[in-house]
Amino acid sequence: MNESTFSQSISRNISETSTSFLETTNSSFPMVIRTPDNVAAIIFCLSIAVIGVIGNVLVIGIKTCKYKSSTHQVFIIGLAITDVLVCGLVMPINSVEMLMEYSFYTTIIGRVIRTMDHMLVFMSIVIVSEMSIDQYRKICYPTKRQMTPNIAALIIKMTVPVALVFAIPVTFVRRVNIDKDFINEGFFDCKINDEENPINIAYDVVLSIIYVAANFIIIGIYVKIGKTVFNQINFRINLAGKTFNKSIIVSKRRRNVLEASSRRIVRITFVISLVFLISYLPILVLYIHENINGSYLISPCSLYNPVIAVIERFYGFNHMANPFIYGFFDKNFRNEIRILVKKIFHCKKSYKI
């Protein structure tokens, strides 16, 4: 036997032994094979989880202790609590799902995860819409009766049962795949079953309507707010010019201050709308395309497609980004963060001494 023949024989024996061992292992207990395709989505979810939890906990603490109670602050705190739950529960669970290839020993786990996911997302959408409506009423109808902090807190509490009503169909309407040919035999594939039946289609249509309506409501509100703010600023400038035209010319500094205020309001409204749209638009496009054409825009198997895996979870960016928006536009919030960081480093130095 020459060297080449001997080498091929050894390789064949090793391969047969490995195959036999794997078959024995799989026959003894289910084995989870982790595909590298989901690494990007797993890293994305874990990053959202860590950054989002830290940022939103800071928002809750600072807004609760350092800010005067108002409807705006109540909505921000309520939104931050929801964001903490999304970042602290939904995103890590999504990571575990992908690590286990969506496979669990029982379908109950898959159903509970899907229901909780939908419920928290619904709560976030409702709170963002309520906060936008509150700002709309204050700016566009300042003389009318406004919402109080207690009413705002009550509305946030009411979003829980409302969100549950919209999310609970996931437990009963949605079916969970049971794939006997799945590589991890003995597990249940907990991806949502998109079988075309009237109930599933109806629920998909409802979800699409909610997403589209929320986007249009928020965009419409902030467009109206922007127009109102511009009209108010122009009115003040014209009024000041008419009042002091004969004796005093409106100072350039005052005009610059008003214009800077206008630009700041426009930036805030633009960023809030943009972040919301960017976060939810990808999954909205997938929903609409699937309902209209009856097929996926991208390959339906997120297990082997990292693009769809990230797109399906990109809404998490919205729940992570809110603290950065507050920090960028709210000088007081930035100062409180700066003071907190200094205290932490001071405590570390004192502890070392």
| Low-confidence residue ranges | 5-36, 178-189, 244-250, 299-304
Rg, Cα atoms, Å: 27 Å
Number of helical elements: 11
Q: Can you tell me the CATH topology? A: Rhopdopsin 7-helix transmembrane proteins
Strand-residue proportion: under 5%
Q: Quick one: CATH class?
A: Mainly Alpha
Q: How many extended strands?
A: 4
**Widest sheet: strand order?**
1-3
Oligomer: single chain
What is the overall pLDDT average? 70
CATH 4th-level superfamily: Rhodopsin 7-helix transmembrane proteins
Written as H for each helix and E for each strand, in order along the chain, the element string is: HHHEHHHEEEHHHHH
Question: How would a crystallographer describe the biggest sheet?
Answer: 2 strands, antiparallel
Straight-line N-to-C gap: 74 Å
SS-based structural class? mainly alpha
Number of domains: 1
CATH architecture label: Up-down Bundle
* Bulk shape: globular
User: Helical residue percent?
Assistant: over 70%
GO molecular function: G protein-coupled receptor activity
Transmembrane segments: 39-62, 74-96, 108-129, 150-172, 201-223, 265-288
Protein name: G-protein coupled receptors family 1 profile domain-containing protein
Membrane topology: Multi-pass membrane protein
